[in-house]
């Protein structure tokens, strides 16, 4: 859902983006391939990260030139010995969108659909409103956040999110989505007004991602969660991705805190498809996702293809933010995720064959900035190490 990204967005285009690594002194997940110096850097960066106000814990996965690191640090519940582990399920928020983009790239390569398809051909009923002066919303517009669709449906959720850090926000979101179904989504979609030609201006839209999930269901004749789990099991050996949890899985869901509330808050409410912000995963599963992204391959390459260029430094692919012109990082692909009790980042940096996933179990207006600082520090140290080795 990336609620927080709406606060830290816009021309930082991606300075918002819109988190790098950690070693636990008591219960680390383990270093799959030894790299002592980088492990020490990860440890130091993570320790500094959770010293920031309100941050309780972090889990971090790093893949660097084929070496894997998973680290957990801190306690998920304030005042209790409760470190996260490899079994902890996290709400990864709008990182979910990059998974949906990957499935869309697969569908394009398989000629199940075309990027220039009018989205209305996949919808039940007539939607004369999903166009502007004859220009329809196309699939590429959903993927690049240029459709003109609102961030959330129903519209009253957008009003709630205008003051994300208000302690009432999680409760109000829960009330809005308690019984919000796919039928409700389509009803509200009929009332949307497109006020400018699609494809021109960036306007972040979780609605667009939910609609993309419906389109995938329509072309594959399978429910979205089944598509998600099946593809990533087969292509990346990721077996534990979940949108909806059973009772046993729910006991492994990370505790989390919203803004400055000292009381743990409830999970992100279920959206109709869940593609925009409801995926849950463990740190080891996210490391496999980093490896999948770094390995390339036709689907990943297609998903990293820029669909719209906003300026010389910022483009969007299949929900991926693409940043150019950064001398340190090179061209990189990234996304932020935020729900009321968790924030996360994913960075894919081909220049260093480096992928970073970091998540905290607190979501406030300074969380993203703290994670960005941690990632920048880690990348600087990796760059310095590589320069020294030349």
Question: Which characteristics define this entry?
Answer:
single chain, 390 residues, alpha+beta, Beta-lactamase, nine-stranded antiparallel β-sheet, two-stranded antiparallel sheet, 12 helices, 16% strand, globular, disordered N terminus, Beta-lactam/transpept-like, EC 3.5.2.6, beta-lactamase activity
Structural account:
The protein is an alpha+beta fold and 390 residues long. It has a single domain (4-389), classed as 3-Layer(aba) Sandwich (Beta-lactamase). It is built from 12 helices and 15 strands. The chain has helices spanning 36-49, 96-109, 139-143, 156-161, 169-177, 182-190, 206-220, 224-236, 247-250, 283-295, 298-303, 367-389; strands at 30-31, 57-64, 67-74, 90-91, 131-132, 135-136, 257-258, 280-281, 308-311, 314-316, 321-323, 332-339, 342-349, 354-360, 362-363. Helix 1 runs antiparallel to helix 12 (367-389) and helix 2 runs parallel beside helix 7. Its EC number is 3.5.2.6. Belongs to the class-C beta-lactamase family.
């Amino acid at each position: 859902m990336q609620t927080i990204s709406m606060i830290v967005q816009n021309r930082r285009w991606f300075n918002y983006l819109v988190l790098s690594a950690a070693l636990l002194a008591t219960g680390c997940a383990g270093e799959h391939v030894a790299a002592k110096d980088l492990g020490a850097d990860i440890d130091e960066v993570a320790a500094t990260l959770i010293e920031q106000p309100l941050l309780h814990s972090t889990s971090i996965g790093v893949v660097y030139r084929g070496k894997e690191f998973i680290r957990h640090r801190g306690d998920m519940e304030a005042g209790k010995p409760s470190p996260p582990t490899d079994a902890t399920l996290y709400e990864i928020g709008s990182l979910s969108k990059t998974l949906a983009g990957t499935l869309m790239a697969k569908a394009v390569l398989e000629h199940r659909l075309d990027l220039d398809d009018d989205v209305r051909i996949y919808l039940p009923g007539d939607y004369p409103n999903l166009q502007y002066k004859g220009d329809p919303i196309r699939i590429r517009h959903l993927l690049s956040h240029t459709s003109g669709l609102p961030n959330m449906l129903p519209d009253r959720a957008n009003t709630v999110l205008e003051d994300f850090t208000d302690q009432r926000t999680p409760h109000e979101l829960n009330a809005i989505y308690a019984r919000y179904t796919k039928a409700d989504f389509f009803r509200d979609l009929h009332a949307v007004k497109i006020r400018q030609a699609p494809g021109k201006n960036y306007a972040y839209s979780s609605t667009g991602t939910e609609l993309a999930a419906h389109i995938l269901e329509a072309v594959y004749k399978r429910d979205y969660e089944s598509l998600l789990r099946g593809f990533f099991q087969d292509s990346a050996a990721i077996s534990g991705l979940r949108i909806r949890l059973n009772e046993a899985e729910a006991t492994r869901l990370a505790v989390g805190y919203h803004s400055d509330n000292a009381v743990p808050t409830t999970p992100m409410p279920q959206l109709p498809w869940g593609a925009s912000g409801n995926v849950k995963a463990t740190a080891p599963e996210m490391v496999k996702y980093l490896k999948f992204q770094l390995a390339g391959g036709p689907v990943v390459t297609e998903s990293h293809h820029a669909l719209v260029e906003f300026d010389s430094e910022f483009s969007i692919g299949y929900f991926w933010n693409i940043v150019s012109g950064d001398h340190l990082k090179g061209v990189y692909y990234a996304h932020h995720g935020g729900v009321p009790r968790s924030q996360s980042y994913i960075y894919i940096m081909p220049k260093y064959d480096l992928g970073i996933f970091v998540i905290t179990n607190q979501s406030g207006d300074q969380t993203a900035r703290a994670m960005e600082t941690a990632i920048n520090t880690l990348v600087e140290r990796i760059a310095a190490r590589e320069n020294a080795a030349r």
